[in-house]
Amino acid sequence: MKVVNLTPHALNLMPHGPEGSVVTIPPSGLVARCATSRVQVDTVTVGGITVQVNQTQFGAVTGLPDPQPDTIFIVSAVVAQAVPDRLDVFIVDDAVRDEQGRIIGARALAHV
Q1: CA–CA distance, 69 with 83 (Å, rounded to integer)
Q2: Where do the domains of the chain lie?
Q3: Do residues 76 and 91 lie in contact, with contact meaning Cβ atoms separated by under 8 Å?
Q4: Are 97 and 104 contacting, i.e. CB atoms less than 8 angstroms apart?
Q5: How far apart are CA 80 and CA 24, in angstroms?
């Protein structure tokens, strides 16, 4: 199975238990992105001022290759949500954090 990381970050996949080692998947150099735009849908009054309520709308995905045999693509959650029918598209799941709360890896992959 070929794994293509379409994020700008190296991904560390970690075992669930003490057995096994971390597998690092470097960025491929391509980044899948989803076009976004904000549309004002309402306003609310907070502390005497009027504040816009926006809705983010997602558009076309760029940088995501067509499906390929025996290949999976790891993308951001936004990109994955834009292509829910693509069974070859995954996000990282079950985050592992360091002592400062920063994500240092993941124990799983997921579909959205």
Answers
A1: 18
A2: 2-110
A3: yes
A4: yes
A5: 21
Q: Which residues pair with 23 in a beta bridge?
A: 13
Q: Can you give the pTM of this predicted structure?
A: 0.83
> Order of strands, edge to edge, in the sheet holding 23-25?
2-5, 71-74, 89-97, 103-110, 11-13, 23-25
pLDDT tens-digit map of 28-84 = 999 999 999 999 999 999 999 999 999 999 899 999 999 999 999 999 999 999 999
Cβ pair 2, 71 in contact under 8 A: yes
C-alpha–C-alpha distance, residues 43 and 51, integer Å:
5
Q: In angstroms, rounded to a whole number, what is the distance separating the alpha carbons of residues 78 and 52?
A: 23
Long-range (24+ apart) CB contacts under 8 A made by 45-53 are: none
The closest alpha carbon to 112, from 37, 36, 34, belongs to 34
